[in-house]
């Protein structure tokens, strides 16, 4: 007989399709991978002579500015999800068919950890090391453009997704250039990721998409009630 200590608060045994350990492993991997970019950036910053935290200064005002700066790109990505056109449909399909099933069981704490890890790790590497290193050789404008191209190229989910990532890289690079404070980009990136994950994964919503990320995934799962017709696929 199954041990009742393993049953959930409702008195029912856990659903193996939802409570399998695959989710915890995926969240742990995501946090350690993204967070691991921070020590990598310290090493590369020492190698290139551009410490990633050289332009970092803690400031409540800068943190609020970063959070506010995240709103515009987040609204833009939500517009892509709700009203995709042309190749942008591939981004929506990726979110529905791969991202949501992979992290569908996430809690609010999971989302916060992933967002913080991504904001700190990726910004220390791309805007803290690559952008100033390239700028030193080519100038500030090309530093932003080329580091953003690298940022997009290292998000090779699809060509449309890489283009959107490139645009986001330009936006984040410009915030560092204008504010001279990496904290603004870190907070902007983290809040942006958190807002999009909250929309896609909906922790606390009783009808949110859930399931074992290691198991079978329903191919027709949708995130916002808007299906994509077969003939709309690019």
Give the secondary structure arrangement, pairings included.
Elements: H1 22-48, H2 60-69, H3 71-82, H4 89-103, H5 108-138, H6 140-153, H7 159-179, H8 182-201
Distance between the termini: 52 Å
Give the uncertain stretches in residue-range form.
Answer: 1-20, 216-225, 230-234
Q: What global shape is seen?
A: globular
Number of strands: 0
Oligomer: single chain
Strand and helix order: HHHHHHHH
Largest sheet data: none
Helix content: 55-70%
**Proportion in β-strands:** under 5%
Structural class by SSE content: mainly alpha
Mind explaining what this structure looks like?
- Mean pLDDT is 85; it is low at 1-20, 216-225 and 230-234.
- The protein has helices at residues 22-48, 60-69, 71-82, 89-103, 108-138, 140-153, 159-179, 182-201.
- The chain is 64% helix and 0% strand.
- The longest helix is centred in the middle third of the chain and has 31 residues, at 108-138.
- It contains eight helices and no strands.
- By secondary structure, the chain is mainly α.
- The relative contact order is 0.18.
Features:
globular, disordered C terminus, 234 residues, mainly alpha
Report a brief summary of the structure.
By secondary structure, this protein is mostly helical. It contains 8 helices and no strands.
